[in-house]
Amino acid sequence: MLKPIVEIYPVMPAKDEAEREALRPIGRDGKIFQEVMQGWTEIIVEADRLGLWGAAAIEHHFWSEGYQMGTTPGLMNAYWAGLTKQLHLGARRNANTAGLRTLGRDTGFDSIGDWPQADLLGQYLDQLASEEALPKTIVYNVNPADNYVFATMIGNFQDGATAGKMQFGSGWWFLDQKEAMEWQINALSNVGLLSRFVGMTTDSRSFMSYPRHEYFRRVLCNLLGRDMESGYIPNDPALVGSLVEAVSYGNAKGYFGF
Hints:
three-stranded parallel beta sheet, mainly alpha, single chain, two-stranded parallel ribbon
């Protein structure tokens, strides 16, 4: 599977090379340096929202401003990693060692894992919340046995200020199909608030995956339509239609700030 990343070549802004030459060492200009770092941060956060696999910069010796620009790329990477919070949990990677040696990584030898998730996930989110450092977070699960663990765990850390701050993400990887999407929607609806759900987010890092947004919308509409016909929810197309619109578009638009 194609896994695109965004690779950044950081350059301190100047109107032309003459100004750049006059300003050198331009990396010592705190205002310009912070502008670059803020711009880079915005790019990385947006890449995470779009589901790109990663972000990187060229080795810092080759940056146009050299060590003036950044002597601790590891520290900056750690900072940016703390701003990206789409967590994909539960996969058992590279189960077939012989196959891995023959064909390499990401060639079909991954499966669903079966590890306890509640304690470590809870401790991680609690640590961030205790430090007032917990951002908007989407948690994706690949083991359907843990659906209710994830759906209830996010409820522990809703802050009452940001609507739907903590999200239980839609079916991911092996669960990215009709039956498992319905499991996820039902689990969230049973113990959470479906009306705040941001719906399908493209986390598979492939532009060919975008049609699954339409697939997800059809699954959602079919599920809610059956519930209306069965009398489980009001048979009110306007009311239910507004829910579909929010989950399919409006919530994500507000959550991600598009």
